[in-house]
Specification:
It is built from ten helices and 14 strands. The chain is an alpha/beta fold. The chain has a domain at about 265-330. The strands form three sheets. It has an eight-stranded mixed beta sheet, with helices on both faces. A four-stranded antiparallel beta sheet has the order 2-1-4-7. The protein has a two-stranded antiparallel sheet with strand order 5-6. Helix 6 packs parallel to helix 7. The longest helix has 18 residues, at about 205-220. The radius of gyration is 21 Å and the shape is globular. The two termini are about 30 Å apart. About 40% of the residues are buried.
Length: about 350
């Protein structure tokens, strides 16, 4: 077993490419990340920056035409996983070296994923209870359907949904309740790592607040380690321990949530925070980031943010800045910070 405070997940030099008719686009570019046990890591950035691709890569679920072309994903399996078709021994495993039966044993049981849109992720032809039964039987074929339904009812009740609604179909639920169902399905097998991809997208602010409160409570109840993917920095302010800011497939800054909100270091992180409304300062002038993200099929040389950066120097137009350690152990990819 790992000691307290050690990493549950370690990502080493991970890169993902999408081969399109226009050419090759790098969806994730040389990402290094550590995720300590029982902590929440927030992934933030503009749409298309690689957040969801990174989350899916951890599960080895990058959709076609995407492909993981480089890197290691190290995960600490707490207990031996034995199924009818395969076995995954406890200890440190490299997800990139597992075969597909081993990955199927790992998904759901050790690492679960909450997808963005519950309406398209849930099967409209089967009841919510059947969704739970299928997930549980996939990992334990001997489980009785009655036992699976009882477990489903308990999970739904903990999420504020009447247990009797286990017999309802997805279209009979509101958007917020469907999102709760997706969270419940992710927790059905009590995974060690939960990846939540935009879990509050398209929800009104009241339902969003309720979902975030429930996620926080369930994190404590299930002793979860989490990756929370969102473009909403306000969400991360309430939930994340550490935040990775991504831009055009790369991590630009990795800081504790407190440090990031108190003093963002990377110019892109600064611009993101300046564009967030602050109800405590209604007179504050909102800022915007000029221009648009570069074309990933035809990437520009140097730092990808340099055309939009007010601090760009000549070196920014020629050299890609490495992710280096700066003050208090924070990591920043910017030529303004030479590193320790």
């Amino acid at each position: 077993m790992m000691e307290n405070g050690s990493n549950l997940l370690e990502i080493r030099d991970l890169s993902v490419e999408y081969r399109t008719r226009r050419g090759v686009a790098r969806g994730v570019d040389s990402v290094f990340l550590n995720l300590p046990e029982n902590k929440t890591l927030g992934l933030a950035g503009e749409s298309g920056c690689g957040k969801s691709t990174l989350g899916r890569a951890i599960m080895r679920l990058v959709p076609y035409p995407g492909e993981i072309i480089n890197g290691d994903i190290l995960f600490h399996v707490k207990e031996d996983i034995i199924t009818k078709h395969t076995r995954v021994d406890s200890g440190l495993v490299n997800i990139m070296e597992l075969d597909e039966p081993q990955m199927r044993a790992l998904r759901g049981k050790e690492i679960a994923y909450i997808f963005q849109d519950p309406m398209t992720s849930l099967n409209p032809m089967i009841t919510i209870g059947t969704h739970f039964i299928e997930i549980m039987k996939a990992h334990d074929p001997l489980i009785e359907e009655e036992e699976a339904i009882m477990t489903a009812k308990g999970i739904l009740q903990s999420l504020g949904i009447s247990p009797e609604r286990v017999s309802d179909y997805p279209h009979q639920f509101s958007g917020g309740m469907r999102q709760r169902v997706m969270i419940g399905l992710g927790l059905a097998l009590k995974p060690k790592l939960l990846i939540a991809d935009e879990p509050t997208t398209s929800l009104d602010v009241i339902v969003e607040a309720q979902i975030l409160e429930e996620i926080a409570a369930l994190k404590e109840e299930y002793n979860l380690t989490m990756i929370l993917i969102t473009h909403n920095l306000g969400v991360l302010a309430q939930t994340a321990d550490n935040i990775a800011i991504m831009y055009t497939s790369r991590v630009m800054e990795l800081s504790s949530a407190i440090d990031l909100f108190e003093e963002p270091l990377h110019p892109y992180a600064q611009a993101l925070l300046q564009s967030v409304p602050d109800v405590t300062q209604p007179e504050k002038q909102l800022q915007w980031i000029p221009g648009a993200p570069p074309d990933l099929v035809n990437p520009i040389p140097g730092c990808m943010y340099n055309p939009r950066c007010p601090h760009a120097m000549e070196i920014c137009r020629t050299d890609v800045p490495p992710l280096v350690k700066v003050q208090d152990g924070r990591l920043v990819a910017c030529h303004l910070y030479p590193g320790e």
